[in-house]
Amino acid sequence: METTESNSIQMVVCDMAGTTIDEDNIVYKTLHQAINQFGYNFSLEHVLTYGAGKEKKQAIESIIGTIEQHPDEDRITEIFDLFLALLEEKYDNALITPQKNAPEFFTALRNKGVRVVLNTGYNRRTAEKLINKLGWKVGVDIDALVTADDVPRNRPHPDMILHAMQLYNIPSGEQVAKVGDSKIDIAEGQNAGCRLSIGITTGAHTKEQLQSANPTFIVDNLMSILPLLD
Predict the structure, then answer these.
(1) pLDDT single digits (tens) 25-40
(2) CA distance 86 to 105
(3) Is residue 19 part of a domain?
């Protein structure tokens, strides 16, 4: 990889499902199924609105918290355990593909000397299963994978991005761009001080929902991000 100038974007942190990976919203459909198996009647739209982008146990708590002031912790844990079991089974059999132009986007960034980091509200086991299914390799296709298991606090806290910055000795968020398909992705980038917090319309949230989080830009395709980095 080439080296970049110190004042330029040196790293792009991308969300996984809905941003760089197309899994037909399996994760949120499964989250929806698991929660409603415990007697709730949430719509998928409600699950996406209040759960998208979050660590999944946190997402369950947020969704149930919209109708219960103090959600029961034991029930949340039971729902989370069911969700993990259902998701593993579905991912074993699902068609998982890169989002349009994702491999080309990664290659273009790395050819410019820009680090490519994937981050996610998934646990590491699930995240690694996904990238293995796609044949993506750390050190070849991407530079690093940071998961909810790797940091003490998850989105919208900046910990995953700050962890990635530490990996590559990047001192300032002014040298980082964050890309994601949910409002919480955008908030994560803003909280990390990223120069760019970019929403993409290929996943959980609509353009209007993304706009409400005040992103730096909103795009419809990953390749549209490249000229925004210059």
Answers:
(1) 888 899 999 999 999 9
(2) 31
(3) yes
